[in-house]
Amino acid sequence: MPAPSRWHKQQGFVEGQFSYRKGGSMGRMYGRGKGIASSAIPYKRTPPTWLKMKPEDVCDHICKLAKKGLTPSQIGVTLRDSFGVPQVKNVTGNHILRILKTNGLAPTLPEDLYYLIKKAVSIRKHLDKNRKDKDAKFRLILVESRIHRLARYYKRVKSLPATWKYVSATASALVA
User: Fold this and answer.
1) Residue 81 to residue 91: CA distance in whole angstroms
2) Could you tell me if 109 and 153 are in contact, meaning their C-beta atoms sit under 8 angstroms apart?
3) Quick check: pTM over 0.85?
4) I need a surface site. Which of 11, 29, 36, 139 has the fewest CB within 10 A?
């Protein structure tokens, strides 16, 4: 085997060693990018000393925001930006979705599945107007296969009932 070039050494591909890169050349499963950038979660799992909110207050805010119709990720962004809560789990000891489940406010569909169904509905609506759009038809097939794959997983982990089935004709009622 030839000796590695200088570029290979700079990239961390030296023989007998692992690369420092996180993902190698594999892309994201359900995203466009192939990047390795990600946010760094703090090492300490204790609530920050500068945070004055009590865990009960955070739970109350979560319930209020859920009653307004926000999804768990939107609740997390709102708590971070408006109330200065960096990590809900570090403050309360529970994730946002678990807090919502204990209060009976959890969404019926998992969030990632909900947004995939929403995307499929919008593509199908576009296809009704533009029947010759072959690319949109192809993308719809890809999105719907992702929906079926995620639904299979959620049925296995019992987040969805075993009888749940994605039907494109009734999908718009799920996201309305």
Assistant:
1) 16
2) no
3) no
4) 29
